[in-house]
Design brief:
Blueprint (H helix, E strand, L loop, with lengths): L23 E8 L8 E4 L2 E4 L1 H11 L1 H4 L3 E8 L3 E8 L36 H20 L12 E5 L2 H20 L1
Antiparallel strand pairs: 1-5, 1-6, 2-3, 4-5
């Protein structure tokens, strides 16, 4: 019989065995804690960000400064969630001295290790999102002098965009989100 004080196992919602550091486009959705309206409000189809929302926007725009292999695309912060498209434009594979030879003197990168709980993979989508959420939380708590402020749900959602049609649909969804919100 397992001990009653055991830490529950977290189940990942990521695609099993998928390398989230590989080149591609990813549609990301991150929700606020308990879906609270912590980022601002919608008026006349436009998003009006509050302090936390502006911190979230600034931190999102800074992602490429911390992860040089990432480009930003469509993005919106809603009152209780955000959507964005991140593009990994080049592999972030790690090279080691062993990986430098393929028998012909050509450099061969090692396969990047897949993300596992408490084992981040440098440059992978989970690491990027974790860093983003931590930065927003730290800055918001400091700015508002609320050291226990909860901002985020514990996970996020992503969808791998496989082609131009999916990219266009995701971009349109992001741009239309504030207008559709107003209609609700």
């Amino acid at each position: 019989m397992p001990p009653t004080d055991a830490v529950p196992t977290r189940r990942s919602i990521r695609l099993p065995g998928y390398d989230y550091s590989q080149i591609g486009q990813y549609f990301i959705t991150i929700c606020a804690y308990e879906m609270r309206y912590v980022f601002g409000k919608i008026e006349n189809g436009a998003v009006l960000l509050n302090v936390i929302g502006r911190i979230g926007l600034d931190c999102w725009r800074e992602i490429p400064e911390h992860f040089e292999h990432v480009e930003l695309d469509a993005f919106v912060i809603m009152p209780n969630h955000l959507h964005g498209i991140l593009t990994i434009r080049r592999s972030h594979a790690i090279q080691s001295p062993r990986s430098m030879e393929d028998g012909h003197g050509c450099p061969v990168p090692l396969q990047p290790s897949l993300e596992h709980f408490q084992r981040p993979s440098v440059g992978a989508i989970p690491t990027i999102i974790r860093s983003y959420k931590q930065s927003v939380t730290y800055l918001a708590r400091r700015r508002l002098t609320r050291p226990s402020l909860a901002i985020w749900q514990s996970n996020y959602y992503e969808r791998v965009l496989r082609d131009g049609k999916e990219f266009s649909e995701a971009s349109r969804y992001i741009f239309e989100n504030p207008i559709k919100w107003q209609a609700l």
